[in-house]
Task: structure prediction
Amino acid sequence: MAVMMQAFYWDSPIKEQKEGEWWNFVAEKAPELGKAGINALWLPPICKGAEARSPGYDPYDYFDLGDFDQKGAVKTLYGNRAELENLIKTLRENNMNAYADMVINHNSGADEEEVNPIDGQKRWTKFNPKSGRFPRDWNCFHPSRYERVMIEGENFAGFPHLCHRNPRVYTAMFEYGRMVIEELGFDGFRFDFAKGFGAWMIGLLAKYRYERDGKEFTPFVVGEYWSGPDGIGNWLDEVRAVTDNQIAAFDFPLRYKLKDLCDTLQYDLRNLTSDGSVVANRPFNAVTFVENHDMGGNEIVNDKNLAYSFILMNEGYPCIFWYDYYNLGLARPGTPNGIDALIDAHHKYADGEACILHADPDLYILQRSGMDGRPGCIYVLNNLGDKWSGTSVKTQWKNQKFRPVAWDGHDIAHPDERTTDPEGNAEFPAPPRGYAVYAPVFE
Result:
């Protein structure tokens, strides 16, 4: 049961006064993150964008990782290639993987305008990158000679939109992916704006026979397909039709439920039991999250650790947000009341089948059955704002003692230990507007 962290937020190097030094800054944090139980870091886009302080979501030169003087700077906002390679090496030394943010559908910062002869429109599509790799012109973008109509998906912010059916583009994307995995040592891909290009492209990049240390290597792959459950499900099916590799999607439908949980007065916890999320329908394909860099203006405001408790005690691959962990101080190391305690409980206990034992508008109780040496646990979520709440539930454990291992809420008094009766029944309470995780004690 792994835990991922998005190791940046929007303009994080600028706001933290680490311009050009973000790779070094994250490397300094690697030992403590590894010790906290983070298994992988999702890193921001690595290549040179359209201008010096670009966060990277407007690629100009895919093969300039901060070593060519162009677009107003030598380094990217995050650093250079040597610093990136050192970061990945440091992550490996601290038992963490690295996932690369792949922005492969739109470009920006072109050097010249040119007329596209197919429709007669003038666009900024002439690119002459100083790396000397992947120069491109109008025929690398839509509309292109390689398709009669644009069939690859949505456009983004009016940027030139790559046509992957052009063999030149297709080859460059494979060269880029190969560099990311084989040369730099990344362990997986996060595909940005997956609505913008064919699912077949992700499938083919996922199934390419990458090599690492003389052996075939299969990367982890997750896509940002910002849609409802049906749209994400259809996209996963489309990718699966092209590759046998396991592909994941960020669970946007669950994230909006979690925002309602935290920010909506008298939210009905039974909404958490219904379908309508990736993790509910396809738990092995779900990357669950509470916040990310694109949620500006739609952030969760209240009691955010309620949401973190839900993703870390449930199925799916949970992703922690750097800003929440560090800048908002929600890690709370050394206490049972923060993300660190939840990560520890996730690794030690939260495995096996997830079974909802009770759900009403104000109380939600989940059982994780345990698997592979992790004994399972009981997770309680209380939506009442003024009192502790719990109810008797029938668990799989008979005559079993439980101790609280993580909890938080508007009252953080230490919950009592609990013991089930001969039929497996016991009452498990949680603090007001809070949660509690109870783990079996074997003596």
Notes: The mean pLDDT is 95. Residues 4-250 form a domain with the TIM Barrel fold (CATH 3.20.20.80).
